[in-house]
Design goal:
By secondary structure, the protein is an alpha/beta fold. It has a single domain, classed as Glutaredoxin (3-Layer(aba) Sandwich), CATH 3.40.30. The chain has four helices and five strands, in the order βαβαβαββα. Strand 4 and strand 5 form a beta hairpin.
Length: 102
């Protein structure tokens, strides 16, 4: 499944997904974000049991504020509408998957 571009307009349907959701908060100018992005893409392709989305913090400041994003990249996992895990900074793919399955 492809990575979804998350905006304030489509966030409600993502938040209420029956699947576990991985959100990647990023900015185009962020070096560590560019390291994490391909890993998030791989997870989306390889693990269709998850909904995977990316939130550009420059384009979606309201969503970034709602999640308390103060540093990027920030990854958040949502299950049943609630945040169950989050991590700030670059993470290896194995650690991201551990968050999702945790």
């Amino acid at each position: 499944m492809a990575v979804l571009k998350i905006t304030k307009e489509n966030f409600a349907e993502i938040k209420n997904s029956e699947k576990t959701v991985l959100l990647d908060f990023y900015a185009d100018w962020c070096g560590p974000c560019r390291m994490v992005s391909p890993l998030v893409d791989e997870i989306a392709e390889e693990h269709t049991e998850f909904t995977v989305g990316k939130v550009n913090v420059d384009d979606q400041p309201e969503l970034a504020a709602a999640f308390g994003v103060s540093s990027i990249p920030m990854l958040a996992v949502i299950k049943n509408g609630a945040i169950t895990a989050h991590a700030v900074g670059a993470r290896p793919k194995s650690a991201i998957l551990e968050m999702l399955k945790g």
